[in-house]
Amino acid sequence: MTVANPRLLFLHGFLQNGKVFSEKSSGIRKLLKKSNVECDYIDGPVELEKKDLPFEIDDDKWQACLDTQVNKAWFYHSDVSSELNLDETIKYVADYIKENGPYDGIVGFSQGAAVAAIVTNRITTLVPNHPEFKVSLLISAYSFTEPDPAQEGQLRIAKKFQNDFKPSSDSRTRMLFIYGATDQAVPAKRAQYLANLYKQALVESEQVKEYEHPGGHMVPNKKDIIRPVVDQINEALTA
Fold it and tell me: Does the annotation count 35 as an active-site position?
């Protein structure tokens, strides 16, 4: 009997697509290929218009985005977490997994990492009979927070997303976090906040590993940074 190769689902960031994420994560992808891990990169369901961007961009650059079809996202940006709506996106990912899965794990970058965290937490209910992921790699990840009215200066997960970002205490998924020390788009402390949710919830805190790199909002490709991460992925997949 032939044993199928392990498979990982990859979710790109805001204003990217699967093809670009494949290129940006080539270091990780090539190391995984040596272990016969299959990487499936998909496009987000949201097609952005120029008015949807949270920053200014000139017409020529925007046209280049359209020409290369990187005007993709998983949800529309908002600085107010309670305004976000991910219902259609989560259904889109769940339907894709139903049709193309099962997957042994998931990898996400930035916006895609936020979605990947939710899918990781809810996979067994989103996709009936799908086992929990063996591994979840979240790069430049964040959760949907708001000021905590009970603690001045502190944050909490926005009320409408508290169940989405609540890990199951008996989960066996290995949680891996990569974040940049100089990331301006998603500061390291936001990724650390999300990592801490898992550290606090999981019975085995050793399931959570964090890797900081000196760069910004990017997927690191230097082998000294990514090799330990890929080793963790391979270990989780073969456990």
Answer: no
